[in-house]
Amino acid sequence: MSSNPNSFVSRFMHRFTRDIGIDLGTANTLVHVGGRGVVLREPSVVAINKEDGKPIAVGEEAKRMLGRTPAYIVATRPLKDGVIADYEQTEKMLEHFISKVSSKYTFRRSVVVGIPSGVTEVERLAVTQASKKAGATHAYVIEEPMAAAFGAGLPVDEPSGSMIVDIGGGTTEVAVISLGGIVHSRSIRVAGDELDEAISAYVRRAYNLYIGDRTAEQAKIEIGSAYRLEQELEMTVKGRDLVTGLPRSAVISSEEIRNAIQEPLNAIVEAVKLTLEATPPELAADAMDHGIVLAGGGALLRGLDRLISKETQMPVHIAPDPLTCVVKGTGIVVEAMHENPLIRKMLEKATNV
Predict the structure, then answer these.
(1) Most buried of the four, 131, 162, 245, 341, by CB within 10 Å?
(2) Based on the domain organization, do 252 and 274 belong to the same domain?
């Protein structure tokens, strides 16, 4: 019985090639591996030994070191506002994550990385170069709102308007998409990190208490809201008294958090409004029919959908599993790019290759 040599080669290549999609976020990095789905979700943090410049820990282990390291170790986030702030550390972080999800027998990897729509050509090039140095054979980028739309299951290739709002750690991406392309988009560097900073600043002003970033983030997650709650919540936060320098705690309410984050929330709502104003009437009408879809970790803030709906007079929906929309979208794209010429053309245009 004869076998088909082309079929054998195809199975062989499929087994030893692993295409990867990456959501390279300011706060967290998620990785999708072809045929396996989302296999990694870790903080975008690197702990470096300052004496030799070598990474001591990456991801979850490094995040636990933030603010708790001796003088010769520095734990930092190599990305700021959705783009690479420290190229060398980003490369080491990517190399660690890619090697963690890849077999040593994998000899070809195409990598697709989600990036903010407002990045410069230099920042775009930095992402592809860092990916190649980290082990990618071919590196492409895709704008995050497009990836989020794929991941949220929106009909991006149809001749109708779909509106996506992706609120990450460093940037908020707002886009109207039709026929496989972004018709109009707006990227602002106001997102989850700015909400955390606003909470920290409020606690300093109101209670003379200095709290760390992790405590501010915890308060946002546990009691934060963008819209009035039926039953307001309270939480005890611990930090350092700015007068005595000693440890102290304070009880804050969800109403206080809501007032503290009002300014960055207004910036996000304004970005949505400005995008709608610049959208062609026919596509704006489609978005009105289908509703605005929220993705990213910021979509989980209580009442944000109600706030945006009230301000825009449009229906607003939260995507299924909003935290993974971008990485799932990069996974869908990377798995289809070899068979679908339109997707490959889209990637090449976004990457400028």
Answers:
(1) 131
(2) no
